[in-house]
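Intended use. Records like the one below are meant for learning the mapping from a protein sequence to its folded structure. Do not use them to infer anything beyond what is encoded.
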Amino acid sequence: MIHGLLGLDGPGGAIVAAPSAPVESDLSLPSILQGTPVPTFVIDADHRVTHWNRACEAIIGVRAAEILGTSDQWRAFYTEPRPTLADLIVDGITEETVARLYAGRWRASPLIEGAYEAEGWFEHFPGGARWLSFTAAPLRGKDGRLLGAIETLQDITERKQAEEVKRERLARQRLDEIVEGSPVPTFVIDAEHRVTHWNRACEAVIGAPASALTGTRLQWQAFYTEERPVMADLIIDGAGEAEIARHYPTKFRHSPFIEGAYEAEDFFPKCPGGGRWLAFTAAPLHDGEGRVIGAIETLQDVTERKRAEEAMRLYHRAVESANNGIIITDVKALDHPVVYANPAFERMTGYPQVEAIGRNPRFLLGQDREQMELEAIKSALRQKRPGSAVLRNYRRDGTLFFNELFVSPVRDEAGEVTHTISVMTDITERKRYEEQLEHQANHDALTGLANRTLLMDRLEHSLACAQRYGQKPAVLFVDLDNFKTVNDTLGHNVGDHLVQAVAKRLVHCLREVDTVARLGGDEFVVVIQDAPEESDVTHVMRRIIEALGRPFTIDGSELFVTCSIGASMYPRDGEDVATLLKNADAAMYRAKEMGRGGFQFFTREINERVCERMVIERELHGAIARGELQVFYQPQLDVRTGAIVGAEALLRWTNPRLGSVSPGRFIPVAEESGLILQVGRWVLETACADSRRWIAEGWSNARMSVNLSARQFRQADLYAHIAELLQDAGLSNFILELELTESMVMQNPEQAIGTMRALKDIGLRLAIDDFGTGYSSLSHLRHFPLDILKVDQSFVRDITNHAEGEAIAAAVISIGHALGKKVVAEGVETDVQLDFLRGHGCDEYQGFLFSPAVPAERFRELLIRNGQLTGAP
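Structure written out for the chain above:
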């Protein structure tokens, strides 16, 4: 008999064994067990079932008669042999064994020592599977010996189902919260493909509201323009890879994290902002039994990543396609080796990429490591900043090219420089072009000599060296004599060839340290770097004169030229560039005045003449506006009748500072400065205006003679201007005579004839002034359309001095008449001279015998006195 009693105690009313004092009772253990509503069974120490009550039969479906006395109690619960919890108690249960058989669903009883509680799912019970909670406790005798074990059962299926419902409700609630609150665009569909969740992040990215999709099967409309399954639909349908590939060709893969899930990327043009690239993952959702009950799909906007990838691909293609050589070096590695070189680098340098990678870019410098601009690159690399320079680099075959190099640091996310990118441009052709431009900018195009710009630079450098090292440079101004005659007679092409030949001879006369420059036309400047003594400069100038004095063969013709040279020496004649040039120029003009073909050093006398010329030129500017110029008129008379038949207009200038300035002083200055054009025009206009007044007062057959300068004669529009002047003056019966010099017309006789004919066509008369003093030939003279020859006053003056003078004067008059020209004698001062001229048939005369040149009003008085102004008051 078991010593103890069975009481109703413990969780769920389970029967437990509890020790107590022995009592006498009519109740036996079998009757108690049989009548209890709690499913209970007992096994002995040999695992044989000794008790199996009716409640146990009802819930488990196994009758007591079938199991009592057997050790097959496991059959009531399991399909394969395994111990029940009571068996474990009898065997001396260990927690490791309980944990293995009832993982996560067991515990030691808190009420009965040595007892355990557990629960399990039993599928083959009558009426279907059930959840049971069971407690097994040991049964012991008075002596504590183990007699067996008792196990009580409780059907907890409803409780478990309620808990499952609650868990599912909580899970759905939690899923709702997770999905809705997730920043990751997410949607869920059920097994019927209906949308159950469409969170706010999904609305923002896709642009479709949840209200339009939840509860529908229209999830495709959020992504596509035509109906087709989304990835979640394919997951629910259990689509194979072939079906998935049909919808997402080359864009999907198995998820490496979730079994049965797939990942893909695609572009969706319906998304806001012109479409988006989305990466999406769809995974199945299972119930507790592993059945697919839906699918969840998460989205990620990878538009920026895709753009970045495309930009990177574009950048790579651009770098690969660039015309510029591009290399990347690793600044973290020893000696900063090249890690990338684009195809243009290979084309530019001849080095294949494999030969460049791993080497420091300095190999492009060859042996030319001492380059000034290289320091700019080194400094930029040290300071981790962009930099640039133009370097001399060398190709694989050793040829030089100029590399316009730009370097820039490449930083990582932390801002640390990891690489340097170098962009190379081959500017060899540009450098050559720049050198050509520089040469053109600093050299004369015709001769290749230094031009004015380079000359000034060389002179500045020469003076700097002189001040530093005590040298004495000299400046020579070289001008060809009568070069204009060559141009006018033989043409500018011959003149250009002559200038080129002269330039070569000048260069051969000098040392390499000296400079020869051409300022233009036939003007050259020589800079002698160091000439300690005047004799050194004299030696150079004589060598130049001798070299240029030898004949030149130009286009098969032999030409002879001479030159005039002026010299100034530092520091005697000037301590700056401008002064040395000015003084050498002045000395050159003095050399020309002294007879050409020679040289002159600058002197104080020359300086005074230059200063005077400068003052005259300065004051001559504005002299017309200030009323300082005046036209005087010298009467020209008929030798036979004594009538005033004309007048020569002569310019006079009276300046407040200079006083009365003779024409011999200011006319050459006006010629050189170009002011003669303005002054000559004013003289013509004034002479015409005065003549119009006198004609209006009765001076008939009036003739006004005006001297024409060489510059005026060369003006292309000269005859047009004079024709306009005569028309504006309204002088229909007025004779305007222009006086030309022999040298003027003989510089280019053919051109002079054309100009003279044009002047004759508008009704002008032409006279040769100072006839006999120049070098005109009779053969040329007879072709000139002249009207008057003017006998120079030097011949007239000699009439009374010696017989030769009379013979020359008579010959000039005779030649003029033989050529059909009227002859006018100048400078007649005595009656004897006039009688001689009258005796030899001279037509007209002028001179102090009758009157010097006088102002306009005084000339009018002469006309009145001579009875030739019939209309004068």
